[in-house]
Amino acid sequence: MTTTSSGMAGGAQAGTTWGGLASLPEADRVGPMCDLLREVMSLPEDQRTSAMDGMVRAEYALDEATLHSFTASRLRAWLRLAGEDMDLARSMSQAWDHVFDGMPAETAMRRATVVQTVARSELNAEEVSVLFEFIPSIVRQIPRAPSSLSQRLAEAPPERDTPWWKFWG
User: Fold this and answer.
1) Global pTM?
2) Dist. CA 5–CA 41, nearest whole Å
3) Euclidean distance between the first and final Cα of the chain, in Å?
4) Pair 10, 51: CB distance under 8 Å
5) CB of 24 within 8 A of CB of 71?
6) At what angle are helices 64-84 and 105-121 packed, to 10 degrees?
7) According to DSSP H, which parts of 21-158 are helical?
8) Using CA atoms, how far apart are residues 46 and 134, in angstroms rounded to an integer?
9) Is the pLDDT of residue 158 over 70?
10) Element (H, E) at 17
């Protein structure tokens, strides 16, 4: 198997390296994530797919709290890479989605949940808007604008003359 300049050999090593970044403080994660993503994106397609598969598996093996902060860091790394090279960011997101196409449904659901939570609690509207530019699948995970139903549910319920349980009255 071919190794990269840093000695990365395939998916297992990339996954180990990627998962190891979870032990870094959140503020120190984005730079190394960008470095590893650039390295993986420079690999031939078959090696890139294998490396990303290992990375996805390592990321989604994290416990909930760690996954939340790790995903926030990953999305910020992706935003940084998009600022440097939007074509690279688009290729990266397509490769990431391709790997997810082969993941179990449970992992896909976990992904959607954590990305929605992170986007709504950790990222600002401008960051989310940039994500929409290069991650087409994010549309499935984060609604661009609140729906009219969610807006109505957020408003106070109307005053009622009858108890709620007498819905037929």
Assistant:
1) 0.76
2) 13
3) 72
4) yes
5) no
6) 70
7) 30-41, 45-59, 64-84, 86-101, 105-121, 125-134, 138-141, 148-154
8) 22
9) no
10) helix 10-20
